[in-house]
């Protein structure tokens, strides 16, 4: 679903373009687990401990988050990362 196949750094426009394009080709259904995604981004952020880069994770959901407690915990744990 990446708008920029060669790079994961496409900006907000790339994110929105990928989201709109994906809605035409995927069917959304549960369970919806976000904690693994948050933890993946946290590992990427931890690889840049000097703060020279920052990471923004935009979560878009069409319904209930199945792992809400784990997602909240993951967000709190990564909140100090760049």
From TrEMBL:
PANTHER family: COPINE, COPINE-5
Domain Copine C-terminal: 8-82
GO molecular function: calcium-dependent phospholipid binding
TM helices/strands, residue ranges: none
Coiled coil (residue ranges): none
GO cellular component, one term: plasma membrane
Protein name listed in UniProt: CPNE8 protein
Highest taxon of source: Eukaryota
InterPro entries linked: Copine, Copine_C, vWFA_dom_sf
One GO BP: cellular response to calcium ion
């Amino acid at each position: 679903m990446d708008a920029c196949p060669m790079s994961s750094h496409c900006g907000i426009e790339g994110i929105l373009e990928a989201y709109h394009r994906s809605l035409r080709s995927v069917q959304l259904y549960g369970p919806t687990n976000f904690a693994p995604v948050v933890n993946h981004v946290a590992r990427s952020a931890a690889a840049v401990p000097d703060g020279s880069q920052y990471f923004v994770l935009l979560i878009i959901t069409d319904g209930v988050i199945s792992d809400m407690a784990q997602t909240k915990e993951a967000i709190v744990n990564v909140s100090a990362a760049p």
